[in-house]
Design goal:
Layout: H1 3-10, H2 14-21, H3 29-42, H4 50-53, E1 74-80, H5 82-87, H6 94-108, E2 111-117, H7 126-132, E3 135-142, H8 148-156, E4 161-164, E5 178-181, H9 183-196, E6 202-206, H10 212-227, E7 237-239, H11 250-257, E8 265-268, H12 271-283, E9 293-295, E10 312-314, H13 317-336, E11 344-347, E12 350-352
């Protein structure tokens, strides 16, 4: 029986039955006891994890004695590193939506999700952590930057791994399998839209973060300018700042005020920078889009919570999560054939036109 079918039969969510099967904390003792009794009555004890069968407390360490039996429910590990929490660079819960997509597709493939914070229990190596997490068949890795530690962990994991938004090679030059937003398509669409509207002077607003996402977007913005015959002028690049206040725009206003000349349009690294740009321009007495047009990136809910509504590049974090699981399934099949390919899947990025771009034609 599949875990999701068991959850349905017992009248609980797949997430709840996963906590019971894998002996993880997160539910009351009374509910856990009731569900364990029902599972035993149904004769599905083989689905319980080793820790659960040993009678250990939820989250407790396993017996040091090696056990051959493992949880019948396959698991996908979601590996998190502190880079993400420290940089505060996810104000719109993008990766929360990605995780929702991962969970949805994982259950469709009869897998559980096990979340592992890699900066905890550092005395255990990656293989030990995955072993204790249950029957882990693959991992999805969420670093906001690639470094030697991440590379070392992935190579020692012993299971296929898929990265999110890994645009650059590892320190050794190895490029991990990844699912990425197509910044190339997005920036080409943004700059191309401005050219169609008659704009010839286009600037860029960026935060100053140097994660692979931001670096890749700046690269493809420059490439779009070149391919569309526009000048790439250094004085048209404006840094909004990386401070803790996610929506502070005074620094950007000062930089715009200090410019000898402003472009007719600004492409922004993400929607937060677009929000800052609109606020900063208004503070300087400039109108959007009448005086300066603005385009964001990511198409977050913020785009329709400000006047004018922001034209932006849409991508789907939920789809990213689902495609991570699908790519992982492909890697598992290829590994069974003793193949270790490099695979990269780019998600579509399309322009959503709203009110922040003026037609100069």
């Amino acid at each position: 029986m599949k875990a999701k079918d068991l959850a349905k039969k017992l009248g609980v969510s797949p997430a709840t039955i996963s906590l019971v099967l894998n002996n993880k904390p997160g539910i009351s003792d009374s509910l856990r006891k009731t569900l364990l009794e029902k599972i035993q009555e149904l004769g599905h004890e083989e689905m319980l994890s080793q820790s659960c069968r040993e009678g250990g407390a939820p989250g407790a360490k396993l017996s040091p004695e090696p056990q051959e039996e493992r949880c019948a429910c396959k698991s996908i590990a979601y590996l998190m590193y502190n880079h993400f929490q420290e940089d505060m660079n996810d104000p719109y819960q993008f990766f929360t939506q990605v995780l929702e997509g991962i969970e949805y597709e994982a259950w469709e493939n009869d897998c559980c999700i096990v979340m592992l914070h890699m900066n905890r229990r550092e005395g255990l190596d990656i293989a030990q952590r995955l072993r204790r997490a249950g029957n882990v068949v693959g991992a999805i890795v969420h670093p906001c930057k690639l470094d030697a530690r991440v590379e070392r962990d992935v190579k020692a994991a012993g299971v296929p791994c898929v990265f999110m938004d890994a645009f650059a090679p590892m320190p050794s030059g190895w490029e991990p399998p990844s699912v990425c937003v197509s910044n190339r398509q997005g920036m080409r669409s943004a700059v191309g839209h401005l050219v169609e509207k008659g704009h010839q002077e286009v600037g860029y607003v960026f935060s100053g973060w140097e994660t692979p996402v931001e670096v890749d977007r700046r690269k493809w913005f420059r490439r779009a300018l070149k391919n569309l015959g526009l000048a790439d002028r250094p004085e048209y690049y404006f840094q909004a700042g990386t401070g803790d206040e996610l929506f502070e725009y005074q620094r950007l206003a000062d930089r715009l005020a200090g410019a000898q000349r402003l472009p007719s349009a600004l492409v922004c690294e993400n929607d937060r920078q677009a929000w800052r740009a609109i606020k900063a321009l208004k503070q300087l007495g400039l109108r959007v889009p009448e005086d300066v047009s603005v385009i964001g990136f990511d198409d977050q809910a913020l785009c329709t919570a400000i006047e004018p509504n922001i034209t932006s590049i849409h991508n789907s974090p939920h789809l990213m999560g689902r495609e991570c699981v699908m790519l992982l399934q492909n890697l598992i099949r290829l590994r069974e054939r003793e193949e270790e390919p490099w695979l990269r899947y780019e998600l579509p990025a399309r322009l959503v036109e709203r009110d922040s771009v003026r037609d100069l034609g």
